[in-house]
Structures are given as C-alpha cells and as structure tokens.
Amino acid sequence: MELEDKVAYVTYSHSSCEDLWEAYVGQLNKYSPKLNSYACLDKNTTIFPNVYIYDDESPYYTQVLGCLDQVKEDFIIPMLEDFILYDYVVQEKLTFILNFLIDNPSLSYVRLIKSGVEDSEKIGDEIYSVPLTSSYPYSMQPSIWRKEDFIRLYNQSKVEYIRQEQAHHESYRKLKLQGAYFYKDEIKRKSSRHFDSSVFPYIATAVVKGKWNVREYKEELLSIFEEYNINPDKRGTT
Predict the structure, then answer these.
(1) Sheet with 143-146, edge to edge strand ranges
(2) 188 within some domain
(3) What is the DSSP code string of 181-193?
(4) Residue 188 forms beta bridges with which residues?
(5) In angstroms, rounded to a whole number, what is the distance separating the alpha carbons of residues 174 and 171?
(6) Is residue 234 in some structural domain?
(7) Which spans in 52-114 are helix H?
(8) pLDDT the model gives residue 2
(9) 55 burial level (CB within 10 Å; 0-12, 13-18, 19+)
(10) What is the CATH number of the domain that holds 164?
(11) pLDDT of residue 84
C-alpha cells in the first residue's frame, strides 16, 4: 500500500480561526497534495474536504473522537489550522518514518519535529526516543500517530478544553505509551523550543496568543500574507 492509503491529516479547528483556513488549506494542498485530509470543525465550509461538524458545547476530547470515527486510515497526522506549510513535505521521508513506526509496534507515534525534548536516545536513522520523563511526552505538533493509540490517549485523558496538555502528559505516562521524533540537525528558532523540520517544513506556530508569529517566521508569513491577501493588522503581530 502507498503512503496515502495509510496516513491522513486530521485538522482540528474552530470558526474563531476561520481567517486562517484558506491559507492553511491552500498551503497543505500545494505542498502535500497526495494525503487524504479530514477536518473537525464547529461549522460547515467548502474550504476543507471531509468536514466533521462537532458540537461546540461538548468536551474537546469527544469532538476529536467523533471526528476520528470518520477516518478510515490507520495512521493520522493531527494538525491545527496554524501549522501552515511553507515548503514541500518530503514524501520519501514520511514513508520512511511510517515504515519505522510499523516496524516498531511499541511506538505510538513519531513526531516530525524536535520540540521540547532533551536527553534522547537515538533509536534509528535520524529518529530519537521521547523519554517518559520528558516534560512533553505528548505534544500537539505534527506527528504520525497510530490512530488506535491516539484514541486510547484521548479516551484516557478526557480533556474538556484543547489547551489542557498536562492531562495528556499524565495519561500518556499512565498508559506507558512510547514515542519518538525525527531530527536531522535542523536549526532551532530563536525564542522557541521548536526546531525547524526538514521533512515537514511548517510554521510552528503561525499564531501565538492570538497574533501572527512574525517575530519567528517573518519571511514565511509575509509571503503567505501576500499570496492569500491577508491583512496582518486584523490579528496583530508579535
């Protein structure tokens, strides 16, 4: 089976971020057109394909799990609307990472970026472990996840709101999940715990505290503002 038969993007968003949707989907279609894509939204739109509309009054974890019920692929790349691509996803490397995950059934995911992890052990070619002792054993950053393990985690954590990452960390450790990340000596962004990703070049993240993250991604965002006719003053910039 090909990569696109096994892996799909699953994007969670809310209409309060609707001003990002066109740029996010446009860049995803431009730089990673082969993978299937699903969207978990609180309203319908023609911008995204395969839209699952969640109840805005329900807990966050049930919103996500309801969407995942519609996903036929066994592996997912969870996304948010401000994970905007600025260059081509390296399909061959994604295939390599997926195969590494398949060949190592104890792993639940491989993160596509180095972020907030130290003291890691190299467990494969450009692949490093995420220790359970890490401050961020779970991270809402693009990763190839086994869908069944992602569902287990969310069923365990039962988070009410999207930003309750500490509950995910605790549930991750309780379930004794194991993860890894891809790292190829990419540079670290200033004032950030995020490194660049050569396999999945995206803005991490495009919006910080409600404002465009121009401080860290000026060149990439200015290009996106121009292409999608975005007025950055409406949100403001960092």
Answers:
(1) 51-53, 36-41, 7-12, 75-80, 143-146, 109-111, 179-182, 127-130, 122-124
(2) yes
(3) EE-SSPPBPTTSS
(4) 195
(5) 5
(6) no
(7) 60-68, 91-103
(8) 85
(9) exposed
(10) 3.90.550
(11) 98
Digit-coded pLDDT (tens) for 129-162: 999 988 889 999 999 999 999 999 999 999 999 9
The whole domain housing 37 covers 3-229
Residue with tokens 């190839």: 144
Q: Token pair of 29, please?
A: 């279609």
- Integer Rg of the chain from CA: 17
Please say whether the beta carbons of 19 and 235 come within 8 A: yes
Distance in angstroms (rounded) separating the CA atoms of residues 56 and 60: 8
pTM over 0.90: yes
Q: Residue 53 domain-assigned?
A: yes
Quote the tokens at residue 18: 């609707």
Q: Please, where are the H alpha helices in 69-164?
A: 91-103, 147-157
Number of domains in the chain: 1
Give 121's DSSP letter: P
For residue 33, list its beta bridge partners. Answer: none
190 part of a folded domain: yes
**Are 116 and 134 a contacting pair, CB within 8 Å?**
yes
Strand 7-12, strand 75-80: pairing: parallel
End-to-end CA distance of the chain: 44
